[in-house]
Amino acid sequence: HGHSNEEGHCHNHNHAHETDSLLSYHAYSVSFINSNLHPTITGGDERDEYYNFFNGNDESNWQSGVSAFNKVHYNNIYDNINLVTYSKSGTLKYDFIVKPGADPDKINMLYEGADQLFIRNGNLIIKTSQGEVEESAPYVYQVINGQTVEVPCNYQLDGNVLSFVFTEGYDTSQELIIDPVLVG
After folding, report:
1. What is the C-alpha separation between 49 and 161, in angstroms, rounded?
2. pTM of this prediction?
C-alpha cells in the first residue's frame, strides 16, 4: 500500500479515521459454489478467483481492485449460465446471463472474509472491519418481443451463501439477465 502506520499517524487527527481506512481496507472475496471447474473465459486474463471487492473510502482503491478485469465473460460458469464482470464508473459490476432452460437456482455465491452478511430492505449488506458495503436488490429482466420485461427477484441468504429467488417465476423459454448493483 505504500504507507506505513507511522506515516498515517502524521496526518491531522481529524482525518485519522479516513487514513486508517485507506491503510487497512478490508477485502472480501466471492466464489461460486458447485460451479463448473473450467468455464471458458473470454475478454480478459484467467484468474484463480473470479473477483474481489475492496472496501475503502478512497475510490482509487476500488478502481485498482477491479481494473484488471475490464470486461470478462465466464461462459458456462454454471450449465448454460454465463457471468460477465466489468468496471463501470470505478464500481464493480457483474451480470448473470441465464440461457433458456437453464436453472438459476444453481447460482450460489459464497462470501468469505466479511464480518457479517444480512439483508436490509431487500439489499445485501456486507459488513467489514471498515464499514458496510451494500448491493442493491437485483434488477432482473428479459427481453421479450423487443420489450424489456422486469422479473421480480429477491436475494436469499443462507449463512454466508447468497442466491436468487424468483417470486413470480419467469419465461424459461427466454434469456434471463440478473444485474445486481454494488452501491458502495
Report:
1. 16
2. 0.70
Instruction: Output the nine-digit C-alpha cell for 16.
Output: 485519522
The residues with which 140 forms a beta bridge, in sequence order, are 178
Q: Which segments in the chain show pLDDT lower than 70? A: 1-27, 44-70, 87-92, 181-184
Rg for the chain, CA atoms, rounded: 18
The three cell numbers of residue 37 are 471447474
DSSP states of 47-80? -SSSEEEE--S-HHHHHHHHTTTSEEEEEEEETT
- Helix (H) or strand (E) holding 123, with range, is strand 123-128
Q: How far apart are CA 154 and CA 166, in angstroms?
A: 7
Amino acid at 130: Q
Residue 180's pLDDT is 77
Longest C-alpha distance within the chain, in Å?
A: 61
What is the tens place of the pLDDT at every residue in 52-69?
Answer: 444 444 444 333 334 444
Start-to-end C-alpha separation, the chain: 21
Q: Give how far Cα 116 sits from Cα of 3, 28, 132, 136, 155, Å.
A: 28, 11, 9, 16, 16
Closest CA to 138 of 98, 99, 78: 98
Question: C-alpha 1: how far from its chain's center?
Answer: 23
In angstroms, the CA 40 to CA 72 distance is 10
Q: 3-state DSSP call for residue 184?
A: coil
